[in-house]
RNA sequence: GCGCCCAUAGCUCAACCGGAUAGAGCAACGGCCUUCUAAGCCGUAGGUUGGGGGUUCGAUUCCCUCUGGGUGCGCCA
């Protein structure tokens, strides 16, 4: 919609530039959408911005600009207001035109071509496969999936990846936990109480039972000679001792089967859970594979070759402080094993070699301390660290009424994403997750979400969409003819109709802005606005009137609203039902 | 202690990278169903944008400071 005023304004500014009134024509013009109708459809503050360099009072300059504006079929009138704003009042034709545009473009109304061949790598969720996804992961999943859709719609090529932390100690702890439950599944009692540092969730028992059914008592012998876990003061030491024992008595092959039993089952569960949630990845990147391929070794060597490494106390350190980090970081431990950070360096190094133009990492907000060191590693490797964008997603706190639900993966006390979806439904869950900015804490009250499920804002928007389809059904029942071609849109002269049309023009701009800001919530808020505006119109104005031309024009407007709602909901992964 | 994020109506949140009189939803109060779905609409009330300074035509937005929350500071992942 801004283009209606922008063309004229550029012309006017060029004229004034030629006359020597202003030193230069700004490269970029921005318009505001005034809150007040008296301030027109579009407002420009250009006179306020150029007043100083032009040496003119803002209002005088605004008046000069106004006089220099060429006639335009789209602009009804322009006013100078306030401290020097130029308020553009558009001709109704400019507003009505959007309806034809929506009905021509259909699913593509709002689609942008901002990407210009840019390929963006988007990494999100990447939860450790040590248990089912919980409500915190759900937020990252919903946010990432919506952002991916949004970026694609804005014209970027997007590659979604889940980084699977399938190596490392947490997975070993899972394997040990599975083993302990396996012993129980075989009706053997443990010589000591189930250790506190092991995973206690019910899913571990299920995995263990499956393992027992497949493998029989084949792993039971490993219980013999197991260290006395009660003998350790520290729970972490106890579980590590057990892990070491299992690795040595089972041997590499059998231990891997035990390890894999948990990993594969949990990964499959996460995959299915996300799939059901409408969240799909192009690739699941295994940390294990990364290490096995030698990529970690290669990345560390590259850092060494670049001259940013040193050895101290038997460990290999990366001099990240050379790039602004708080302290240097260990890459390879005294015991020869690479750190998690080393894998991360390798993973990002490898990402950069895959030909993407930009990278977006979506991390839990508690990982923000990692940003400086990852950036440092990229810079040390001679890579453009500014091409990596890290989006931090704040926690989702769960409440039952006023009581906070404490969640701990280890203790198995958490509400899973699946439970949440079953309680409130996919649509409501997807919508609620992206209803607030990612950098805001999200308080999700389960009780409220269940109790007021029919009051969810998502239904409000879906209802608006369904109402349009209901109009078609109603019209057909009454034997009213539908339009066979684009009706005369100039019949739409009601203020509410023009307001709705103006709102439709805003959608493409909102897509652009939401994509560039990486803020899907902008779309959610826009849809609420559009739905509200339509409900108001629906209540105030009869659409299925006798007069065919007017009826068709109003139905065209309603169709355009429904299409835009559907397009926006699709970006958020929410369905657009034709009937409630 | 140091770093990062946050603070807006009673509650949950917006505010188009500095714009005009800070907006929605819920909760509260009062209206609207013999007329296209009342999962809806209309109206009323609700604010010193945590406090205090500064920058300028103009600040919720940028800078400083204080207060109050969150989070991070491992040879864990």
Structural category is: alpha/beta
Total strands: the figure is 14
Helix content: 40-55%
Q: CATH H-level name of the domain at 456-572... which superfamily?
A: Isoleucyl-tRNA Synthetase, Domain 1
Describe this structure in words.
This protein has 580 residues and is α/β, with parallel strands linked by helices. Among the domains are: 2-90, Gyrase A, domain 2 (2-Layer Sandwich); 171-276, no CATH class; 456-572, Isoleucyl-tRNA Synthetase, Domain 1. 51% of the residues lie in helices and 12% in strands. It has a five-stranded parallel β-sheet. A three-stranded antiparallel β-sheet has the order 1-3-2. A three-stranded antiparallel β-sheet has the order 7-8-9. Helix 5 crosses helix 14 and helix 5 (135-153) packs across helix 17 (495-517). It binds one RNA strand of 77 nucleotides through helix 2, helix 6, strand 8, strand 9 and helix 11.
Which properties best describe this structure?
Isoleucyl-tRNA Synthetase, Domain 1, Gyrase A, domain 2, alpha/beta, five-stranded parallel β-sheet, 580 residues
What topology does this entry show?
Elements: H1 2-18, E1 42-44, H2 46-54, H3 58-68, E2 75-81, E3 85-90, H4 92-105, E4 119-123, H5 135-153, E5 157-164, H6 169-185, H7 202-215, H8 235-276, E6 283-286, H9 287-292, H10 295-305, E7 309-312, E8 315-318, E9 329-332, H11 340-352, E10 358-364, H12 371-380, E11 388-393, E12 396-400, E13 403-404, H13 417-424, H14 426-433, E14 442-445, H15 446-451, H16 457-477, H17 495-517, H18 521-540, H19 548-572
Parallel strand pairs: 4-5, 4-10, 5-6, 10-11, 12-14
Antiparallel strand pairs: 1-3, 2-3, 7-8, 8-9, 12-13
Helix pairs in contact: 1-3, 2-3, 4-17, 4-19, 5-14, 5-17, 6-7, 6-8, 7-8, 10-11, 13-14, 16-18, 16-19, 17-18, 17-19, 18-19
This protein binds one RNA strand of 77 nucleotides through helix 2, helix 6, strand 8, strand 9 and helix 11.
């Amino acid at each position: 919609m801004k283009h209606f005023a922008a063309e004229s304004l550029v012309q006017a500014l060029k004229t004034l530039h030629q006359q020597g009134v202003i030193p230069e024509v700004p490269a970029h013009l921005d318009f505001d959408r005034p809150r007040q109708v008296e301030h027109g459809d579009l407002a420009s503050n250009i006179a306020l911005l150029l007043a100083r360099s032009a040496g003119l009072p803002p209002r005088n300059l605004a008046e000069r600009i106004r006089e220099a504006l060429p006639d335009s079929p789209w602009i009804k009138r322009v006013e100078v207001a306030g401290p020097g704003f130029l308020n553009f009042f558009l001709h109704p034709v400019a507003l009505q035109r959007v309806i034809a545009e929506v009905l021509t473009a259909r699913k593509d109304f709002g689609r942008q071509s901002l990407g210009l061949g840019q390929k963006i790598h988007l990494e999100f969720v990447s939860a450790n496969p040590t248990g089912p996804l919980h409500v915190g992961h759900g937020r990252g999943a919903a946010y990432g999936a919506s952002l991916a859709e949004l970026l694609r719609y804005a014209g970027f090529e997007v590659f979604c990846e889940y980084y699977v932390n399938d190596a490392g100690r947490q997975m070993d702890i899972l394997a040990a936990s599975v083993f302990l439950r396996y012993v129980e599944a075989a009706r053997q009692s443990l010589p000591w109480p189930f250790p506190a540092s092991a995973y206690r969730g019910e899913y571990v028992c299920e995995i263990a039972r499956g393992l027992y059914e497949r493998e029989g008592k084949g792993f039971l012998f490993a219980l013999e000679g197991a260290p006395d876990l009660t003998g350790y003061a520290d729970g972490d030491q106890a579980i590590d001792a057990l892990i070491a024992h299992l690795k040595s008595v089972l041997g590499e092959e059998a231990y891997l089967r035990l390890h894999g039993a948990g990993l594969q089952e949990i990964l499959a569960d996460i995959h299915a859970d996300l799939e059901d949630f409408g969240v799909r990845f192009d690739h699941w990147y295994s940390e294990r594979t990364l290490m096995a391929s030698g990529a970690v070794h290669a990345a560390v060597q590259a850092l060494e070759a670049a001259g940013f490494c040193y050895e101290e106390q038997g460990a290999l350190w990366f001099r990240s402080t050379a790039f602004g980090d708080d302290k240097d970081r260990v890459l390879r431990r005294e015991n020869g094993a690479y750190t998690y950070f080393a894998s991360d360096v390798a993973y990002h190094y490898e990402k950069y070699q895959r030909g993407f133009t930009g990278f977006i990492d979506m991390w839990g907000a508690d990982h923000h301390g990692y940003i400086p060191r990852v950036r440092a590693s990229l810079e040390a490797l001679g890579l453009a660290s500014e091409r990596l964008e890290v989006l931090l997603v704040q926690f989702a706190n769960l409440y039952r009424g006023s009581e906070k639900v404490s969640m701990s993966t280890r203790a198995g006390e958490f509400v899973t994403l699946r439970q949440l979806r079953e309680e409130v439904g996919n649509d409501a869950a997807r919508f609620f997750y992206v209803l607030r900015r990612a950098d805001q804490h999200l308080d999700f009250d389960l009780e409220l979400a269940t109790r007021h499920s029919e009051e969810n804002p998502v239904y409000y928007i879906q209802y608006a969409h369904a109402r349009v389809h209901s109009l078609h059904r109603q019209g057909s029942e009454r034997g009213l003819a539908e339009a066979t071609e684009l009706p005369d849109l100039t019949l739409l002269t009601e203020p509410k109709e023009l307001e709705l049309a103006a709102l439709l023009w805003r959608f493409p701009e909102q897509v652009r802005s939401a994509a560039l800001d990486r803020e899907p919530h902008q779309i959610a808020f826009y849809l609420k606005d559009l739905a509200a505006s339509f409900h108001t119109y629906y209540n105030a104005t009869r659409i299925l009137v006798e007069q065919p031309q007017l009826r068709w024009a109003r139905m065209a407007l309603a169709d355009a609203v429904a299409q835009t709602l559907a397009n926006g909901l699709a970006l958020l992964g929410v369905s657009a039902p034709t009937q409630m």
